[in-house]
Write a structure and sequence with these properties.
This protein is mainly beta and 257 residues long. It is 3% helix and 61% strand. The protein has 2 helices and 13 strands. A 12-stranded antiparallel beta barrel has the order 1-2-3-5-6-7-8-9-10-11-12-13. Strand 7 (138-149) and strand 8 (152-163) form a beta hairpin.
Length: 257
């Protein structure tokens, strides 16, 4: 039985950034082109992110739902509470942004290739003045490709993101998104490694992440532990700066059907 944590491996704890050019981590994580094998999925996640010398960010709980329609369309949503602790500042807390997405299967063979189109929207419901959101909606879309070989599943995602208000164009930035993942699924266990990120029209700007997960399912309930390491290069004056974040999360996933 396949886990669904590719869809929710990184949670609301990872969406914050000091730069408005950074996209929501949840929208960038690698996606399988296959639709959920069960009709319904529900998850609760606890996460922590640390940026050296800058801030600590915690999320608990984050709720996630997934719903498959006629084996062709998958609907999903995520929302969680965030707690931000910055050095020398008062700790803040509140609701994070909501991420809604749809995945439509173009074709799929259980033991071969699959392709799907994904569309996602990050709603601007979080409070930007607290550092918990951006006050602007972001849109993401792209092509998902997956191949199953024995106990392995490999996926590649290519797409684009529109960060900011696409109607007025003020403050808007377009980015290219990419992701690669390898999933090993022996029996009730599930192991996933992935690399994903974004880049804009300036080649010196790169924001990439590497993540690994291990999961185990007992009947209808699954447990997933994951870790993240990210690197970003951004132009600062006459030279690029290199930054690094790291984070962990624990997810409990329930599939009643």
């Amino acid at each position: 039985m396949r886990f669904g944590f590719r869809q929710q491996i990184l949670t609301a704890v990872l969406l914050l950034s000091a730069s408005s050019a950074r996209a929501d981590f949840r929208a960038l994580a690698a996606q399988s082109a296959y639709i959920l094998p069960e009709t319904f999925q529900f998850s609760i996640t606890s996460s922590a992110l640390r940026r050296p010398g800058e801030e600590k960010l915690f999320s608990f709980p984050e709720f996630g739902i997934g719903y498959a329609v006629a084996e062709r369309v998958e609907l999903s949503g995520q929302w969680g509470l965030l707690f931000l602790d910055r050095i020398g500042q008062k700790a803040l807390g509140g609701g994070g942004d909501v991420l809604l997405s749809t995945k439509t299967a173009l074709f799929a063979h259980p033991k071969s290739w699959a392709a799907a189109f994904r569309f996602a929207v990050k709603l601007p419901n979080a409070k930007a003045y607290k550092g918990l959101g951006t006050d602007e909606a972001d849109i993401f879309y792209g092509l998902l490709l997956s191949q199953r070989t024995g106990l392995f599943e490999f996926s590649q995602n290519l797409g684009m993101g529109i960060l900011g208000n696409p109607v007025t164009g003020r403050g808007q930035e377009d980015v290219y998104t990419y992701a690669l993942s390898a999933n090993f699924k022996p029996s009730r266990f599930d192991f996933l490694v992935q690399w994903y990120g974004e880049t804009n029209t300036h080649p010196e700007y790169v924001f990439s992440h590497a993540a690994a997960s291990a999961g185990y399912r007992t009947g209808k309930v699954g447990f997933v532990f994951s870790g993240l390491k990210s690197l970003t290069t951004e132009p600062k004056g006459y030279q690029n700066t290199l930054g690094a974040d790291w984070g962990v999360n624990l997810k409990i996933e329930w599939r009643p059907m």
